[in-house]
Structures are given as C-alpha cells and as structure tokens.
Amino acid sequence: MDIEQYTDKYFTRTRDILEQLRINPIVRYQVFARQPGLVKGIDEAVGVIKDTVGDKARIWALREGSQYASKEPLMKLEGHVQDLVELETIYLGITSGALTGSVDMHDVRRQAGAIYQAAQGKPLLYFGARHFHYSLDQEISGICAEEGFKGCSTDAGAQAWDTKGQGTTPHALILSIAAYMQENNIVGNPTVEAAVAFDRYINPAVPRIILIDTFNREVDDSLATARALPTLSGLRIDTCGENYAQGIARPPQLSIPQKYLEGKGVTVPAVWGLRKAMIENGFPNLEIVVSSGFNAEKTAAFVEADRTFEQTYSLPLFHHIGTGSVSRPVMTTSDIVAYLGKDGWTEMHKVGRDEIATDRLKPA
Length: 364
Prior knowledge:
By secondary structure, the protein is α/β, with parallel strands linked by helices. About 40% of the residues lie in helices and about 15% in strands. Helix 6 packs parallel to helix 13 and helix 11 (about 220-230) packs parallel to helix 12 (about 270-280). The chain is globular, with a radius of gyration of 20 Å.
C-alpha cells in the first residue's frame, strides 16, 4: 500500500514542512472514539503502523474485542512526529471502518447528494478519508465527485477529479512547532509560525488556508496570522466539541435548529463572530472554510445563516465546506497530547483534548 496516496494531504505537507524546519520531536498520540462499544480494527491498525515504521514507534492498545467507554483511549503511539504524522488517516480509517461495519454506498450517495443540495452552490470538499477503511476511499470519493463535490483530501480519492488531494494545516503541524518553541524557550505564536512555514515551503499555487482553533483563540490567532502573512487566502475553523469558540457572536433571529445556535464546536455564532471580527479589523476578503460534522442538516442551517449575514454585511458568512459526513460512521480521533523534552514528557495538545490516563492499554 502506498501510504502517501491514502493519507490526507495536509499530513504529507506537514511532514515536508517539518523536514525543512528540522523539527522532529518525539510525541505521544492518543486515539479514542466518542461512541462506546467493542474494540475492532486495532490489530489491523497496529499491523499497518508496524509495517510502515517498524521499531520507530511504541504502541499500546486495548485488546481486540474488549469493551471500551466513550473517549477512553483505544491506542497510544510514541515516536518522532515525522515518522507518525502521515499514518493518522490510515489507522483512523481502519479503526473507524471496523467499528462502523459495512458501508451502504447507496446511503453514501443519498447523503452526499443531500449535502450538495443543502450547500446551494457553496463549494464542498470531501474530508472523510479518516472515517472509512482506505480500501473504500476511491469509491466514496468517486460518489462525492458525481454528486457535485469539488475535490477531496487524498491523492487516491482525488483521481475522481483528475487532480491531487487538497487540504489546509492540521493541528499536528501547529503542535509540533509549539513543542519545539516551548522546549527551546522561543517566544511567539505557533499558529502564526506554522502559517509562515507553510507559505515558505509549500508550492505557491496551493491556497494559504490556515487552521486557527488549536489553542481555542479562534479570533486572536486568526488576526495574528492575517497580520503576519500577506499571502493568506483563508482560515479554517474546526473547533472541537469540547470548546466554545472564542469570539462567539449571537446572530439575529434565525429559523434554524437550536443546536447550531448554541453550544460548543463549530456553531453559527462561532463562525459569525470570527467572520465579523475579520471584517471589522480590515480583512473582509479572507475566506472562511468550515468543517466538523457538516451533514445535510448542518449545512442547510449554515447556508440559511449565510443569507442573513450577507443581508447585514453584504459579504458571505463562509466560503467553503469540508466534510466527511456522507454516512454515519463511528469516528475515531487521534491527537498529539505530549512531547518528550529534556525534562521528560511535557503536556502539549490542542485545548480541550488533554491526555486521558488509563491503565488498560497493553504493549502492542
């Protein structure tokens, strides 16, 4: 298997950037699922990791078939980030795919088509490779292409559009740079440094779209990045479900489901506040990419909010949608939670995703 073909493009770019920067901390990843159940797919996932990096990684995992609780770690990995970062899409797809079971491709088509209809012309990117076994990536991507999506995040899937995978910066790049800065007492903003490095080392033809929610400073880090990077073309907000986004602004009365108007994660008020702040601070032309759970219902809610925003500001609320919600998978998630420094293991993670202590994992 060609790992690079099946991994999200932002991870291959992360490896390239970190190689150029000569930043390669030893990190610890934590893998979990929000939905409880029986462990499946771990043996295959561990096998792929070992086949790819050999003894460069240390792995602990729950036993295949054992019971696990919501957000309980299924697996932890330790190794140099440059060795591990490209594997995330593959091992998450394997575990998510096994936990989900068989995928109804007719349902995938129905849901992809429903999202396209709900988007009403907003460009859609398929970001769901990590939710399904890699062997299904090309088929699902092909369905998304036929239903109107504009591209996807893997090179294998992007063959359906006769192009390459697309993507922004992931949390792993920003956290790796943050670990390096912290270990070397370098003052600065890791999100900004990641953006500057992306701009320096990645082909200029690639849009400069930067993820800005790692430290739950969505507005502050967006403004800092925009001020530091004249070539910046857009921002991606992917605030996790553990956090309220910074700068939430309550929009005018909207007739959309209440769950998209309150709570944590990527809500309408979260995007409304971010976009409003960028306009008011002199960056009205920066595009906003939204991601995180954009099924047809959520997409329709955001499109309705977009209409209201445009009536108020004569500008769109957001510009692009990245989604993998073309089925109902049991999603697994992988986060960097710590790095090994001169004084031992040091906490380093995106806000809201602390390391979860467990004594159930066994060496794999």
